[in-house]
Amino acid sequence: MAERLLDVKGLKTYFFTDEGVVRAVDGVDLYINKGETLGVVGESGSGKSVTALSIMRLIPTPPGRIVEGTITYSGKSLLDLPPAKMRKIRGKEISMIFQEPMTSLNPVFTVGEQIAEAIRLHEGLGRRDAMDKTVEMLKIVHMANAERRVKEYPHQLSGGMRQRVMIAMALSCSPNLLIADEPTTALDVTIQAQILELLNELKAKLGMAILLITHDMGVIAETAQRVDVMYGAQVVEEAAVTELFKEPLHPYTQGLLRSIPRIDLAATKKQKLEAIPGTVPTLRGDIKPGCRFAPRCPFVMQDSGWPSSLPQRWLGDSNSRSGRGRSARIIRGCSSTPTPGRP
Ligand code: ADP
Ligand code: MG
Questions:
Q1: Interacting residues of 82 by C-beta distance below 8 A, sequence separation 6+
Q2: Tens digit of pLDDT for each residue in 240-263?
Q3: What atom in ligand 1 is closest to the CA of residue 233?
Q4: Fewer CB within 10 Å, N- or C-terminus of the chain?
Q5: Taking residues 30-50, what's their average pLDDT?
Q6: Whose Cα sits closest to atom 13 in ligand 1?
Q7: Are β-strands 226-231 and 209-214 bridged in parallel, bridged antiparallel, or unpaired?
Q8: Each residue of 156-172: pLDDT tens digit?
């Protein structure tokens, strides 16, 4: 059986602001096996970044706080670690890269100095050895002219090259888990494809696991083995990627899949691209019980707020595992037994 690297259970991260409580992550369960890529997908504002920052224990406190749940990494409870131990894990075992590398790089130091600094910090190497390793890391991420690039400043590099620098920095301490939060969103499609290919290659070569966050189902198809679909601060569906694309069960997942452009169909104009009508729920203040997607769900009966025509196989307890001879699938929200007064 695949070995669990990270296990997140019942995670709740709230922000206590003057305008009220923001339930940014509201009961998230997810896991990552050693060496696999888990995709986390959902529209903007569904709690993906806050989930990642919670795992890294980088939630700004105040106003934020992890109020409930457990995060277990390699058998260790991350939420119970003292700050010094957590700092060691961050960077040495779990690294994170962000959407916009320009904001994570310091404009007044060369990229070489910045990567070397990270290496020196984690590996205790001398200045010279650290710079040699820096050049080596830039070659691993396929940076052309690595020897010259180390002497350049972030603004002298293109967006794609800056993202390669960030990846090199994140990999410099050989993490077991790389968290990539929308790593290609700020890049154009050709460069995006190159970066995704690089992540796939590095994962195969270095054997690390990747938690890849994106709002783009296309990115999931290119990289992940398994996927968690997030909506309204919760995971609403979890499945192997092949199964999810073949048979999405949650109406929200179906909506996301219908909104991916397909070049083959676009050419013949047979495909109608559908955006999901409505907007993601605000996570501020009280949240109605029941399925959070109900206000936008095409299957909801207009007045009752409950599903009208869901295929039989969807119907079951919420959070049920519907095996049907394949690997277990988890969906949350859809329920066959409306409780009076809900949602
Ligand atoms: P995603 O990454 O899926 O786009 P986020 O995880 O960034 O979404 O945000 C989830 C929710 O948490 C949003 O409603 C966002 O406004 C809120 N949030 C994130 N950071 C803060 C913060 N520092 N203070 C208050 N609310 C926040
Ligand atoms: Mg985000």
A1: none
A2: 999 999 999 899 999 999 887 766
A3: 10
A4: N
A5: 96
A6: 45
A7: unpaired
A8: 999 899 999 999 999 88
Edge-to-edge strands, sheet with 226-231:
94-97, 177-181, 209-214, 37-41, 226-231, 234-240, 330-331
With 0.85 as the threshold, say if the pTM is over it.
Answer: yes
312/323 Cα distance (integer angstroms) = 14
Q: Is the CB of 17 under 6 A from ligand 1?
A: yes
Distance 33 CA to ligand 2 centre (A): 23
Query: Which atom number of ligand 1 is nearest to the Cα of residue 50?
Result: 6
Question: Is residue 320 predicted with pLDDT exceeding 60?
Answer: no
Q: What is the mean pLDDT of residues 129-148?
A: 93
Ligand 1 mean position to 45 CA, how many Å? 6
* pLDDT value for 336: 38
Q: Answer yes or no: is the C-beta of 255 below 6 A from any ligand 1 atom.
A: no
**Closest to 56 measured CA to CA, from 96, 6, 101:** 96
Residues 6+ away with beta carbon under 8 Å from 76: 89
The answer on pLDDT for 314 being more than 80 is no
CA distance 198 to 204: 10
Running DSSP on this structure, what letter comes out for residue 260?
Answer: S
* pLDDT of 81 over the 90 cut: yes
Q: Is the CB of 6 under 6 A from ligand 1?
A: no
53 CA closest ligand 1 atom index: 6
User: What is the 51 CA–ligand 2 centroid distance (Å)?
Assistant: 9
The amino acid at 275: A
Ligand 1 atom nearest the C-alpha of 213 is 2
- Statement: residue 62 has pLDDT above 80: yes
Residue nearest atom 21 of ligand 1, based on CA coordinates: 15
**DSSP structure string for 117-135:** HHHHHHH---HHHHHHHHH
